[in-house]
Design brief:
Strand content of chain A: 15-25%
Strand order of the largest sheet of chain A: 4-10-9-8-7-5-6
Order of helices and strands of chain A: HEEEHHEHEEHEHEHEEHHHEEHEEEH
Number of helices of chain A: 12
Number of domains of chain A: 2
Oligomer: homodimer
CATH architecture of the largest domain in chain A: 3-Layer(aba) Sandwich
Shape of chain A: globular
CATH superfamily of the largest domain in chain A: Type I PLP-dependent aspartate aminotransferase-like (Major domain)
Structural class of chain A: alpha/beta
CATH class of the largest domain in chain A: Alpha Beta
C-alpha cells in the first residue's frame, strides 16, 4: 500500500487529523535497539524515542514480559508480591520521602492521581504551573495545557500559570543568574497570590522537572529549590512530572536531581515500561495513606504483575548496562559537537539540555533571536529523509528536540552529526 | 511471607486502604484458563474475572504479544498497518454507524474521549447518567459516580442522574412492563429538563449498556431504545459504556445488542486485551473527524502495535472457540440451576443477567426485599474459602456478581453449584 492509501485508510479508521509526524509519514514495521525500519527495509535512527528508553524490543524486557504473561496477569485486588517488589525498587531509586507508589497506566492518569493527592491532603483546589505546560490529555489535566494561550472562557480559574524560567529568552536580558532567579520567583509568588486573592486555596505546583515541553530551557540554578520552598510555605505540595524527565534521560535517575529539588509527589510514565503502559505517582506513605483514606481509587490494569515485570526489566537494563553514565558522556559529546557546527550556521542558536535530552533554538538570526518554526520543521523533515527521526517542541515551535534512547552511543551520534551537517549545508531551511 | 506480613508490606508500599478483596486476601501467583493459584498451590475458580475474558494466560494471546514485542512497539505518530487492521476489525464487530476508533489505554480514558467527542460535536456540556453509575477514576469521569449519593457540594451541576431502570426494586410495584418503561422514561426526561432549566445544553447520555455496576437489573424491554431516542431528540449523543458489557460477556458481542439500542459512541476496555491495557471509543467517522478537528488528542501508549496484537488475538480466540454461543448456553444453565436452589434458601432473591454476567439479590426476606449486604459479603467470603472467587455489587452492596471468563464451561458451573449449595446450607449467612 502506498503512503497516500495508508493515510486515507488511517484517516477513515482513526479519524482525519489523528496526530502524525512528518510531511511524508514513515511506515514503520520493525524496531531494534536505536533503529526503526520502514516497509522497504530502510532504517531510521530513532532520536525522538520518548518511550522505548532501553531501545526497541530490548530482549531482557521482551523476555520478562513473555515469562510473566505466561504465568499471571491479573488486577491488584488480590495480593501479589511482584508488584510490591517493583514498588519497593522504584521507591529505592527516589529521594528519601518518596516511599509509596500509586500505579496507573498512563502519565495522564499519574498526574490525575497527583492532583487528587495534593487536593485531598491540603484541602486546597488551586494549582500553579508553567505557561507552556503539557501534562496530559484528560479533561482535568488538560486544563494545565498552555494556560496562558487558552481562550478566556476555557481558562480554569483554579489553575494559574507563571512564565517558565529560561536563560535564552529570559524575562530580562543582561542580568545575573541570581537576579533572574528572583525575577522568576516573583512570578511564582504572583501566581500564588492570584489564587489567594480570588479565595482559592493552594493545593500545589505541577511542573516538569526539566520543563521539557517548554523546550528544555536553561533554568537559573536556584530557581527550582526556591520555587518549591515558596509553594510549601504557601501550604501547597510540589509535584514533579517526571514522565519525560525520568529514568536517566538526563543522565541522572530523575530530572529533579538534575534541577536540584526534592518534590512531595513525583509522577512517572513514558519510559517506565519501554512501551508497556505503566505509570504511577510516588509520594511519602503519609501522603498516600491520607489519599487512600479520603478517595477510593482503583485502576483496573494498573499495579498488575505484567506492569511490574516490564518495569523491573527496564530498571535492570539501565543498571546492568550502566546507562546513566553513558547517557551523560554521550550527551556531553553530542552537545559539544553541535556547538562546533554553530559557527557556520546562523539559525543554530542556544544548544542546551541534559544527558540525552537536547534542545536547540532555531532562529532567523541570532541577534534578534526571532524564532523560526518553519525552519525547524524543515530541518526535522530533511533529517527524516536522511533516515534520522527527531522532533520539534516549545511554545514557539522552533526548538529542535533531540532525544535518542539511553542506549544511543557515540557511533550513533557521529552518524547523526554527519547527516545534520549535510542538512544545514543545504541553502534553504524553509 | 504470611498474609499479615504481606498486607503490612502492601499497606506501606501501595498505601493503607489500597482496594483488596476478601476478609483474608488471596496471594495469587499463577493463572491458567479459568483457574487462579495461590502461593500454596491451591486453585481458585475465577468467577470475578472482569479482564482476562478468554482465560488467564491464553497461549494465543501470550504468543501474539510476544511475537509483536520482539518486532515493534512504538507510538502512533508513525504509520503502522497493524493498528489499522485492528481498528477495522473492531469496527466490523460494531453496529453500522460505528466505523472509527480512538484508542486509549484504560476505560476511564475511553470515557474521557467519549465525553469530549459529545461535547465537541454538540456544543453542549451537560450529561445525564444513572444514579448508581461508575464509569472511571479521573476527576471528570468520577463526577458520574453515584451522582445521587454525592454530597451536595460535590454534585457536578453539568451531570444529572435518573433512577436506573429495574424490575425488582422498581419505581412502582405491580405495573406492566410497558407502564414501567413510561415511568422510567419520564425520569430521563426530568433529568434532561433539569439541565435545560438551568441553562445547560445537553451533550449526551452516558450509561453502561447493561447497568453492570447498578447490579445488572432487569430493564423494561423498550427502555433503552426509547431513552436513546429521547436523548437524540433533545440534541444529545448516546454513549454506551461497554467496558464491562462488551466482548461477548452477555453472549452478544455488545451489551447494546442485548438491551436493544444503537449508540452514537461506544467505549470499550477491560476484556479488550485480556490484561494488556487496551481501551478505546468507537463512533462514526463523521463524529471522530469533528472531534479531531476541534481537539488535539494524543495518547502515548495507545494505538500501539502491541495493543493491536493483544486485541486482535482476543477477537481471534472469541471467534475461533465459538465463545459467544457457549457463553449463552452456560449462562442459561447456571441461572437455571441457581433458581432451583432458591426453593430452600430465603435470601436468594432475584436472579438475573445475561450470558456469563449474573446478578443475584441477597435479601433478609423475600417479602420485604430488605437488602442484606452483610449476608452477601459473608457468602462471597465463604466461597473464597471454598476456592471460588466472586464479587458483590450494586448501590446497596447486596448483589452477588458472578462473572466467570468466557471459557467457563458447564463442568465449572457444576463445581460452583456444589460449593454454593454447601455455602447456603450453612445456617448463618452473616
Amino acid at each position: 500500500m502506498t503512503t497516500v492509501d495508508l493515510m486515507d485508510r488511517r484517516d477513515h479508521l482513526l479519524g482525519a487529523g489523528a496526530p502524525i509526524f512528518y510531511e511524508t509519514p514513515v511506515n514503520i514495521v520493525r524496531g531494534q535497539g536505536v533503529w526503526l525500519y520502514d516497509d522497504t527495509g530502510r532504517r531510521y535512527l530513532d532520536m525522538y524515542n520518548n518511550v522505548p528508553c532501553v531501545g526497541h524490543c530490548h530482549p531482557h524486557v521482551v523476555e520478562a514480559m513473555y515469562s510473566q504473561s505466561q504465568t499471571l496477569n491479573v488486577h491488584s485486588r488480590y495480593l501479589n508480591e511482584d508488584v510490591l517488589d517493583y514498588a519497593e525498587r522504584l521507591a529505592n531509586l527516589h529521594a528519601d520521602p518518596l516511599t509509596s507508589v500509586v500505579f496507573t497506566c498512563t502519565g495522564t492518569e499519574a498526574n490525575e492521581v497527583a492532583l487528587a493527592i495534593a487536593r485531598a491532603v491540603t484541602g486546597g483546589h488551586g494549582f500553579i504551573c508553567s505557561d507552556a505546560a503539557y501534562h496530559g490529555n484528560s479533561a482535568e489535566v488538560s486544563k494545565f495545557t498552555r494556560v496562558s494561550q487558552q481562550a478566556e472562557e476555557e481558562k480554569a480559574s483554579e489553575i494559574r500559570a507563571f512564565p517558565f524560567p529560561q536563560g535564552y529568552r529570559s524575562l530580562h536580558d543582561g542580568v545575573s543568574d541570581e537576579e533572574l532567579t528572583e525575577l522568576y520567583l516573583a512570578e511564582v509568588e504572583r501566581a500564588i497570590h492570584g489564587l489567594r486573592s480570588d479565595g482559592i486555596r493552594l493545593a500545589g505546583m505541577l511542573v516538569c522537572s526539566i520543563f521539557a515541553n517548554e523546550g528544555l530551557p536553561s533554568i537559573p540554578r536556584e530557581f527550582m529549590p526556591r520555587a518549591a520552598e515558596i509553594v510549601r510555605d504557601a501550604g501547597g505540595l510540589v509535584i514533579a512530572d517526571e514522565v519525560q524527565a525520568g529514568f536517566c534521560r538526563t543522565g541522572d535517575w530523575w530530572g529533579y536531581e538534575t534541577t536540584g529539588f526534592v518534590p512531595d509527589i513525583v509522577t512517572m510514565g513514558k519510559p517506565m515500561g519501554n512501551g508497556m503502559p505503566v505509570a504511577g505517582a510516588a509520594a511519602s506513605s503519609e501522603l498516600v495513606d491520607e489519599f487512600r483514606r479520603k478517595k477510593r481509587y482503583f485502576n483496573t490494569f494498573a499495579a498488575s504483575p505484567l506492569q511490574a515485570a516490564a518495569g523491573m526489566a527496564v530498571i535492570d537494563v539501565i543498571e546492568k548496562e550502566g546507562l546513566a553514565s553513558t547517557v551523560d558522556k554521550t550527551g556531553i559529546y553530542l552537545r559539544g559537537e553541535l556547538r562546533k557546527l554553530q559557527v557556520g550556521c546562523e539559525p543554530m542558536a542556544d544548544i542546551r539540555g541534559h544527558g540525552l535530552f537536547i534542545g536547540m533554538e532555531w532562529v532567523q538570526d541570532r541577534d534578534s533571536k526571532r524564532p523560526d518554526a518553519d525552519g525547524a520543521s524543515a530541518v526535522v523533515n530533511r533529517l527524516r529523509e536522511k533516515g534520522f527521526l527527531i522532533g520539534s517542541a516549545g511554545p514557539l515551535g522552533n526548538i529542535l528536540k533531540i532525544r535518542p534512547p539511553l542506549v544511543f552511543k557515540q557511533e550513533h551520534a557521529e552518524l547523526f552529526l554527519t547527516a545534520f551537517e549535510e542538512c544545514i549545508g543545504q541553502t534553504h531551511y524553509a
